[in-house]
Specification:
Serine Threonine Protein Phosphatase 5, Tetratricopeptide repeat; 538 residues; 5 strands; two-stranded antiparallel ribbon; mainly alpha; single chain
């Protein structure tokens, strides 16, 4: 083993016995007259730092007689002594090693790391400046994982070192690692605000850079719960909140996963529709029941439109989803911009064809809602569906809101356990949760509908302000077979009730409405089995 490696490695690990072995090896190689006094590494291990100067004397004298030791590679990872010295940070030792082997500053080890990578990771500014003065081009050297020294200093939060590396090689801010991560991804993940600002100044487009899985720096800030960094990134690129990576995660997804209410508030106040996307995608693996209720409630309120969009970007905030093919195309063609664009949740809500603002004489709005109705129009009219007015005060209905925003089954079940009593509460449009379930549920619809009916079976025979039973709403909205079956089996008499709405379906049998609305054949077959006599009216 190279005695310099042994000496420096032992110093790094505070190994007194190793230092003694290194000293013995070096003494055996040198003439006895080389040292004027004994070098002793024994004693209290806490006093080992003063011995660094003695390490320097040993190495300097060894290289005076045997300079070739400065270029001997370690059998372990092919490091030369300068790599190890860079981890210690002593410029004096590094200087004698460089004097003996100037090319060492750019020699990589087995992982492609040069001494500057180690000095940058440890944050040794003086040593970094020393190495850069010898060979500034070292700042552009990449490891086998395509990481610059800048990636290492940024990842450890060393601002002064990162700033110095950027001064020498500003293009480093736009160099991606083998996982397509820019330095700003690392700085955002760990919340190094000053470094993020410096990186943005060097490469403003970095806030829009996708890594190998389609994540932006704002995704990394959300994963690390770095609220202030996230706030700054959102100011630079608010549309980043709409980017979904290949795992189907937008930045808000990570904030919800971390139970970070401050981060969630920051994000949904800029793009409320993101809450609808997150709630609809939470599954059984996301441990919804382990979430704080305040977080789910806040997301529900945002998802149904309680908060206005505050992006103020002058551009539409729409969801953009990346898949693996998009990223491959992007990597092969930097000019590619092939996105799969979803319509925003807000736009989808505006396409709702149930207009409670234009009720005919036949539909009567409850007295509690009349005082609110004249002042509401457009998107505000939807609030009637997740609110009820009690003693003149609007009250938010979480169970209704969860159904309206298309929340996933785990979210619905969680809200149901919290607000089981709301199954019999009508919103300001006279709708029970079962009416809303009939309109909005699609996947796993039978499971949650059965939960609602088990708690309040009478819901299937209650009309909303438009005169519709839940079954009739389900047929108008082309609901699935399981949902329709559960409602019918809860009260088979409901199949005999004709529509009482004041439109073209007035006094029409459910079967004929189902055929007119192009319901699935299994739904039509079910209606026919339950009431075959309806054909006699033809």
């Amino acid at each position: 083993m190279n005695p310099i490696h042994q000496l420096l490695a032992s110093y790094t690990t505070q190994d007194v016995a190793g230092l003694q072995r290194g000293e013995t090896t070096i003494r055996a190689l040198l003439p006895s007259s080389t040292f004027g006094s004994d070098i002793n590494f024994t004693g209290d291990q806490n006093q080992i730092n003063p011995s660094l100067g003695r390490c320097f004397e040993l190495i300097k004298n060894l290289l005076k007689f045997f300079p070739e030791y400065a270029r001997v590679h370690s059998a372990h990872d092919s490091s030369i002594p300068l790599h190890v010295a860079a981890q210690i940070g002593d410029v004096s030792i590094a200087k004698v090693l460089v004097d003996a082997y100037p090319q060492g500053v750019s020699i990589p080890n087995a992982k492609g790391k040069i001494p500057l990578h180690f000095a940058a990771r440890m944050g040794y500014l003086n040593l970094v400046e020393f190495l850069l003065d010898i060979d500034p081009s070292c700042s552009a050297c990449m490891t086998q994982k395509k990481k610059l020294p800048l990636h290492f200093s940024v990842g450890e939060g060393h601002f002064e070192v990162s700033k110095r590396l950027l001064d020498v090689y500003p293009e480093g801010a736009q160099v991606a690692s083998h996982k397509s991560k820019l330095p700003i991804h690392h700085a955002s993940r760990w919340g190094y605000e000053k470094i993020v600002d410096a990186l943005v100044a060097a490469f403003p487009e970095g806030v829009q850079a996708h890594d190998w899985e389609g994540s932006l720096p704002i995704h990394d800030a959300a994963r690390g719960n770095q609220v202030q960094v996230a706030r700054n990134l959102i100011k630079k690129y608010p549309q980043g909140l709409c980017i979904s990576n290949i795992r189907g995660e937008i930045p808000l997804s990570a904030a919800v996963h971390n139970n970070s209410l401050l981060m969630i508030e920051l994000m949904v106040m800029v793009w409320p529709a993101g809450a609808k996307f997150v709630l609809s995608n939470l599954d059984e693996y996301d441990c919804v029941e382990g979430k704080k209720w305040e977080i789910i409630k806040f997301c529900l309120m945002a998802a149904v439109g309680c908060f206005a969009n505050r992006a103020n970007t002058g551009e539409d905030m729409v969801l953009i989803s990346y898949n693996r093919e998009d990223l491959i195309i992007r990597d092969n063609n930097n000019n590619s911009n092939d996105f799969l664009i979803w319509a925003s949740s807000e736009e989808q809500d505006n396409k709702d064809d149930t207009d409670f603002s234009k009720l005919s004489e036949g539909g009567k709005i409850p007295e509690s809602a009349i005082s609110n109705t004249p002042a509401r129009s457009g998107i505000n009219m939807r609030r009637l569906r997740y609110e009820v007015v009690i003693n003149g005060v609007p009250r938010f209905l979480p169970l209704h809101a969860a159904l309206i925003c298309g929340a996933s089954l785990p979210v619905l079940q969680f809200v149901f356990k919290q607000f089981r009593q709301q199954v019999s509460v009508r919103n300001s449009c006279g709708e029970l949760p079962l009416h809303l379930a009939a309109e909005f549920l699609r996947d796993n619809d039978g499971i949650f509908v059965s939960m609602l009916l088990s708690e309040y079976v009478e819901a299937c025979i209650i009309r909303d302000v438009l005169g519709r039973f839940p079954l009739q709403v389900a047929l108008l909205k082309r609901a699935g077979y399981n949902l329709v079956k559960h409602i019918i089996h809860a009260n088979r008499a409901i199949i005999l009730q004709t529509f009482k709405t004041n439109n073209c379906f007035h006094d029409t049998e459910p079967l004929f409405v189902a055929t007119e609305c192009d319901c699935n054949l299994d739904v039509i077959h079910l209606l026919l089995l339950e009431n075959p006599c309806v054909l006699s009216s033809l």
